[in-house]
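ok so for the tutorial part 2 we go from a plain amino acid sequence to predicted structure tokens. step 1 is just haveing the sequence, like this:
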Amino acid sequence: MQFLVLCTVCVVILVSDTTARYSGSSWLVQHNATVREELSRYAQMLDAEHQTVQAEFPCKVMSPSPSVPTSVHKLRPGDIQVIAGVGDSLTAGKGIKASTIFGLLTDNRGLAWSIGGDGTFEDHLTLPNILKKYNPGLKGFSVKSGNRDSENAHLNVADSGATSDQLAGQINLLVERLKSEEGIDFNNDWKVITVLIGGNDLCQSCKDGSRYTADDYMSHLQSGLDILHQQVPRVFVNLVEPMNMEVVKSLNEGLVCSILHRVGCSCAAFPENAEAEKALIALTKEYQARIYELVETGRYDTRDDFTVVVQPFFHDTFLPMKDGKPDMSYFAPDCFHIREKGHHALAEALWNNMLEAPGRKLTKWVSTEPFECPTEQNPYFATYNNSRRLSSSGNSENQITHGGRSAVGVEKQEVCDDGNQTSVTRHVAVVVSAFLLLTLVGVALMGLWARYKHRHVRNSKDMHAKDVLLWENSPKYVLDDDDDDDDDDMEILFTMRCSFVVLLTCLVAVRSWTYEEYSRFVYRLAANQTIQREFSKHAALFRPGVQPDVAEFPCKPLSPSNSIPTSVHRLRPGDINVVAAIGDSITAGTGITALTIIGLLRQDRGLSWSIGAQVDYEKQPTLPSILKKYNPNLKGYATGSGGVKSKRAHLDLAKPGAKSEAMYQQARDLVDRMKKDETIDFKKDWKVITVFIGGNDLCDFCEDKNKFSPQHYTDNLRKTLDLFYAEVPRAFVNLVEVLHVDIANQLNIGIICPIMHFFLCKCAAFPKNGKAENELLAAISTYQQSSADLVNGGRYDGRDDFTVVVQPFFEKTTLPMKPGTDKPDLEYFAPDCFHLGRKGQAAAAVALWNNMVEKVQAKRTDWTPGEGLECPTEEHPYLYTKKNSIPNFT
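step 2 — the prediction. this is what the tokens look like for a chain of 890 residues:
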């Protein structure tokens, strides 16, 4: 009989969406006697363990503001008149009181952590019941049970099974209810709205990776939050990070849970393999990072009566444990949704986060977490704005008090417990601790020196008060001498910069890092509010995201050939139907528009020099935007941002951090993708494929000269071009020579850039000595010459519909300088001082195009800032190849 149930469930899985699958499976399981018996026993066990005892409210109930505040940054708990919630089953309260499978289908909205208002705080710990202590007239909370359309739901518009693409719809519904709900003054009442969504996206991500990318998640969040920002006055938005769904795998307890996990979250509960599990964990972290990236843009800080605050208590939260096993008393009988005990813990964690300053918020909840209380000294909910003021005043340590109790009456457990730590690990920990102690001493000494240096500079008669040089060879920052906190800010700034120098010194002794390790490092930096503020000042020097100055398209668009050409040597720009590219982070568009630290990891593929066409040429010159002037129906170019597997990438197969050894696989994947694309006629469409890779090989050259030798690079290149030559018809391949990575040494500006360079290109930015520097320069030259020799040897000249042309504009390209100065023009670069910004990407695109329309023996070997666009002519309308560059070619 159990086998029959399982088979039937499998059918349900195949034919229904997530919510229907879950409901159908629950009904089937409930009608199996064996499973009912097991469930009954399990539910009784949970009820026996579920001993949540509420103490009296631990905080002194403070009065609301004397008058209704006009600023969200001076908002007291008692000022909140309305509460609302959007999200999925966690906010809908699914299965909170369940003791049967049918109970799992009930949304106990009145008990939901962020929006339920059944009873009082002493009965049920929820955010509304906390706020009701400060304002008994609170409105909007849900009561009892029912779906989102029931009378009990009120302003709880969460829907079980919802994914992030439904967020905007929920928020539109919420806005309607806010305007129509009796007793709510839409314009004057202060509102707290809690947003938590994304768990179901993660649960389905392995089944449709293109639908649940981090870019899509961020886009959906932005769409929803934009509606609130544009339409709703007086709002404090809690934006809660999605939880770590990989914990579901550890909750596969028995037959019932396994069945329902298979239906509800199979990607987490039953990953196909270790790689799939790692992919889910990485995607979760990327979701969490994108939340910060969105909020830190300042997009929602344009009004004084509106703010969005990230509440990160789920970031590092994993399973609550008991006796070395998951504490199942926190979970509903499906081992997935959360019981009342869990909702109490979430409500307390959310409340505590709301009072904690950004950068100091707890990133996990534990069972004995103290209940925090606002004080007379700081009675407000913490925002980025009022937390900065507190931080600069230096007395934020005592702003929040603990109520001296735990909302959940179980013994404290460590969230992450490594019981298998070896003696070697402990030894390393001791060594590292000692090293860190020495580092702290160094920081203190350097801090004293910095303060002396600051005073010396401030006292200099020749130094303008508005333009203080904070560090030798560092960029200049403008300080407002009317700010009373200048001295405090300067001390903080100097201390942090000294710390950076010490950190860099420590890191130099370590091996080179992979791009994945660099990414994790960036995430850690982004979690520090002080570093974020410093980075914002740093990034402003690069004017990231600013549209380059572009004149109108200067060329007369030539018509395509009268008939589709059969020879690559008679190929006009208008004959190109498809554009594609392989390579590394430059082609992936890494950090082009970065405004924040996390933004350095964003792949702005739609703005990439050789493959992006997010906007027209007049807004961002790229090779595809130029080709679209000749053929508006061009296909294959990338748009927007995202990873290599995102839908927006199209035929951009470049991957950040890629070395030449990855080139062949990128080519293999590109060929497969072109063949599968129904919009592409693989055999007949003419294609331009740009190959640019090798910079990361050179950046690690000093670490392993054999692995990253010119011969190794040439072998990888040959293998890749051989694949294209063997399998791709009608192709014009641009082989772009490697650039001079040694310019990174000249971009070690300030403190941020050297740290980023250490991870991205240590060999170029920090050569050990003159010999190492010369060896790198020789390797660059040999890389360039070897690629030219490979192509010029005629290896790829045997077909009339295929050619490879070396485009050498990077061969002698040097650092662009500000006109009339000897300083680098930072506007060409991303804020990591390594990747190209919009201006640099545009310059590379123009240089590539110009090389394509220049004869093989007459191509420019560098690009000049501001150089004009070359145009094909009626006399020679073709893209130049070795064959048609010969005089008198006909």
